Amino acid sequence: MSEQSSVTHPRAKVLPGHPGLWWGLLGTFAFSFTVPLTRVAVGGLSPLLIGSGRSVVAATLAVIALSATRQRWPSVAHWVRLAVVSGGVVVGFPLLTTFALTTAPASHGAVVIGLLPAATAVMVAIRGKERPGRSFWVFAGLGTGAAVTFAALQNGGLGELHQSDLLLFGAVVAAAVGYAEGGLLARELGSWQTVSWALLVAAPLMIVLTIISVAQQPPSATPVEWLAFAYLAVVSMFLAFFAWYRGLAIGPMAQVSQVQLVQPVLSILWAALLLHERIGWATLLGGVAVIACAGLAVRSRLSQSM
Predict the structure, then answer these.
(1) How far apart (Å, rounded) are the C-alpha atoms in residues 138 and 155?
(2) Among 31, 139, 140, 285, which one is least packed by beta carbons within 10 Å?
(3) How far apart are the C-alpha atoms of 200 and 5, rounded to whole Å?
(4) CA-based nearest residue to 89, from 213, 228, 182
(5) Residue 302 predicted with pLDDT over 60
(6) How many structural domains are present in the chain?
């Protein structure tokens, strides 16, 4: 294996300086623009076009990268796992969040998606057949409860969850599955190779959905909305995964997943700066509660695994 290879051994230890954390932080920073820029893009593009079209663009880049580097085709077992990754981060998360953000403010979506670090840790525990202690499950449950309560209160009262909230919760589950499986798979195939092959798995479906979306609602976006779409396609759907899966592959995954805790904070900040959304006390308190519970869940799992 060459020194430049992105493939890491499953038992590799954290390197001096914790490079996995830095790669994870870079990926998280890139992902933090996804929610607010999706909110921008839906102003002139249909949610179906945004959710599927961004994957088609990213898949085109993946074909170029895989062909240029003459990557070997994955095994049958790898294709099955790639389908799981694809269903989570290529199909599920982009489509669900895009439809949700046609009505939900970006700051609201960022708080709900703040559950993702804890959800990813849960999926890693399940996928790795680990048995975290009771405190992990308590904090993960509290985080879920905090997110549901926040969403309900912002919609008028307890029990008043909107369809957009259900879509956001579904997106969290989808992304958590894709992150966990993708992080494990990146140790065998490489970080950028994993997301590239996953994009190819979903490409036929996404091409069909893109054609349908254009036929049903021809795009009429402004240059700013097209730029937002371009970021979602090139960075959120492709380049950001290079860093994120690289960080997870180096690991340890429980520790690297902690850096996701800054993502909702950054997303709320970008929503205020780019979209001029008013960030009230409810959003701030809800974000703090969700992030705190997610952080305690991930930290408790990390301390129990050491």
Answers:
(1) 26
(2) 285
(3) 21
(4) 182
(5) no
(6) 1
Q: How far apart are CA 36 and CA 40, in angstroms?
A: 6
Tokens of 21: 């954390």
Torsions phi, psi for 43 (to 5 deg):
-70, -25
- The answer to whether 232 and 56 have CB atoms below 8 angstroms apart is no
pLDDT digits (tens, 9 = 90+) for 238-271: 999 888 888 888 876 766 776 777 787 788 888 8
Token pair 């308590």 is at which residue? 138
Dist. CA 141–CA 153, nearest whole Å: 18
**75: in domain:** yes
Alpha-carbon distance 251 to 14, whole Å?
Answer: 6
Please report, as a single letter, which amino acid is at residue 291. I
Is residue 16 in some structural domain? Answer: no
Whether 29 maps to a domain, the answer reads: yes
Per residue, the 3-state secondary structure of 132-187, as one string, reads CCHHHHHHHHHHHHHHHHHHHHHCCCCCCCCHHHHHHHHHHHHHHHHHHHHHHHHH
Given a contact cutoff of 8 angstroms between Cβ atoms, the answer to whether 113 and 264 are in contact is: yes
* CA distances from residue 105 to 37, 147, 226 in whole angstroms, order as listed: 11, 15, 20
Whole-prediction pTM: 0.79
- For 271-281, what is each residue's pLDDT tens digit? 888 888 777 77
d(C-alpha 74, C-alpha 66), whole Å: 12
Burial class (CB in 10 A: 0-12, 13-18, 19+), 123: buried
Measured distance CA(10)–CA(200) in Å, rounded: 25
Tokens 């690297």 label which residue?
A: 256
The contacts of residue 200 (CB under 8 Å, 6+ apart) are 59, 62, 63, 66
